[in-house]
Amino acid sequence: MTLQRWREAARVYADARVRGLLFLGFSAGLPFLLVFTTLSAWLAQAGVSRATIGYFSWVGLTYSLKLFWSPVVDRLPLPLLTTWLGRRRSWMLLAQCGIATGLALMAFNDPAQNLERTALLAVLVAFSSATQDIALDAYRIECAPSEQQGALAAAYQLGYRIALIVAGAGALLIAAEHGWTLSYLCMALLAGVGILTVLLMNEQQRGIGDFAHAQEQRVLDFLQRSRHWPASLRKLAAWLIGALLCPFLDFFSRNGWRKAALILLFIGVYRMHEYAMGVMANPFYLDKGYTLTQIAAMSKVYGIIMTMLGVLIAGSLVAALGIARTLFVGVAVIACGNLFFSWLARLPAPELLHLGIAISVDNIGIGIAGTAFVAFLSGLTNSAYTATQYALFGSLFPLPGKLLAGFSGRIVDAWGYADFFLYTAALTLPALLLSAYLIRHPLGAAQRS
């Protein structure tokens, strides 16, 4: 590849939409750890039992249930806001205000004194974050043609990873020096990054492809058949058919029912192990004697850097091996990372070097697997139903892992950390088997319209 072609390829990153996705990625990544692993560290220091911390991971089920309100975000305009900002930006702004409010209220609440309020506020932040994801994913796919999607995805991923460092290492460092109240209050202020970005950027009009036209004909046929219905009931039923039924029929008609079911099964199990392990990571580090500062440096900074390295490796692997083989490699590396954590748990006095080895392998695997997974999902969504169909995938892939994560504390109590990490390594087997199947039997899903 010539230097001139490299320069032409790099020009896409000068696009304002690409720069906007960098900040929107930061906005999407910020709340995730604050209701997951960072919150588990706060709860552990507040004296909350491991079993209860495990149950708190079910707050993350909100991300898996977003499918149920994604049609509302896809189709329903917000009074005043939609006229001012457009459909996607209006929903993003509303969600970002909910995130900022929830984090600020969490900052002034002590989980040791009022655990129920902490749980309710965590649900508010997670619900708002999931709603933002619905609108943001739709905006990301709709705002530029397919040849720019790679640059948009790269900018989004970079912003997301930066936010993970801030919400992980940043929040832990502030908490170590100044307490959890100031830590979460700072995170609430940083939610303003997304709000400002939404106010400054533009929104594109979306198109509709041939598959979507075929499905939307169902709405027109219904309206013809129901002319005798009351006008309000007829309008509501037509909206429900277009918002709920058509997106799912479109996905299954483009792929066929058997292939679509296999796609959904694969999506559901691919990251199951990651969620099941993640909720116990910070309690494990604390129980092994590492300080918040050490955890912040190794897990939240060094670990994210290793994830970024995995992303870079994945780009080369996808080009050389294809998506299916890269999916397999990513999960295999993660399984090895879990085995390294089991080894770390068996050491009587582990050092930072030992922690660094385990984190390196695990996070490089996460970077490889996550990048390949996004590439796998990228062709499955019809731009006419972006929010609803992408929410289907985004809701499905965390669900099995989130359900299992709720029992993580009890498994650790019963088996100990060493066997717990063997258990999470075993959870990679379904993803490994299905990835191997995809290598031999490519799905070849239809391209999105």
Please specify the SSE layout and strand pairing.
Blueprint: H1 3-10, H2 16-34, H3 37-45, H4 50-56, H5 61-65, H6 70-75, H7 81-85, H8 87-107, H9 115-142, H10 149-178, H11 180-190, H12 192-200, H13 210-225, H14 231-255, H15 257-270, H16 272-278, H17 281-287, H18 292-321, H19 323-346, H20 352-378, H21 386-396, H22 399-405, H23 408-415, H24 417-426, H25 429-440
Q: What would you say about this model in short?
A:
The chain has 449 residues and is mainly alpha-helical. Helices cover 79% and strands 0% of the residues. This is MFS transporter, PAT family, beta-lactamase induction signal transducer AmpG.
Quick one: biggest sheet?
A: none
Q: Report the mean per-residue pLDDT as an integer.
A: 81
Q: In CATH's first tier, which class applies?
A: Mainly Alpha
Poorly predicted ranges: 209-214, 445-449
The helix/strand class is mainly alpha
Looking at the overall shape, the CATH architecture is Up-down Bundle
CATH superfamily: MFS general substrate transporter like domains
Strand content: under 5%
Number of discrete helical segments: 25
The Cα radius of gyration reads 22 Å
Query: What is the string of SSEs from the N terminus onward?
Result: HHHHHHHHHHHHHHHHHHHHHHHHH
Count of structural domains: 1
Tertiary shape? globular
Helix content: over 70%
Quaternary structure classification: single chain
